[in-house]
Design brief:
The chain is an alpha+beta fold. The chain has one domain: Immunoglobulin-like (Sandwich). The protein contains one helix and eight strands.
Length: 131
């Protein structure tokens, strides 16, 4: 068996009243990657504060005899500051693969904010692919 890093990390979001639940999923790697969450205003994940999740990571069999990992995180939307982002990084040996999501659009309670939040997620995902 050989070592290989994940090639993709994805964050999805679901807002329920005042709680924003983020879910981070990494694709197949061997050994399984470790997920780390960050929150803050800096563009580089590691320049922000590490935040911990109350959820246990879920590890599943994946492609190429590797393992994928996913973990959820709850954030109180009232605690979100302007410009703040959440990052999820999959660490594999000496490599970190990170993705981010803007949090401020989720503070709004109207249906239009959900559209704005999803558009922000799409823009961030496209930016991550380009970079």
């Amino acid at each position: 068996m050989f070592n290989f890093p994940p090639t993709n990390v994805n964050i999805t979001a679901n807002k329920d009243d005042k709680t924003l639940t983020l879910n981070c999923t990494s694709d197949s790697s061997n050994p399984v990657a470790l997920l780390t969450w960050y929150k803050g205003n800096e563009d580089v994940a590691s320049n922000n504060s590490i935040i911990t999740s109350n959820y246990q990571p879920i590890i599943a069999d994946a492609e190429y005899n590797g393992k994928s990992i996913s973990q959820s995180l709850d954030i109180n939307v009232d605690d979100v500051k302007d410009g703040e982002m959440a990052f999820c990084c999959a660490k594999h040996l000496n490599t970190d693969l990170c993705t981010s999501i803007q949090l401020a659009p989720f503070r709004e309670s109207s249906d239009s904010s959900s559209l704005t939040a999803w558009m922000t997620l799409i823009v961030v995902a496209v930016s991550a692919v380009i970079i």
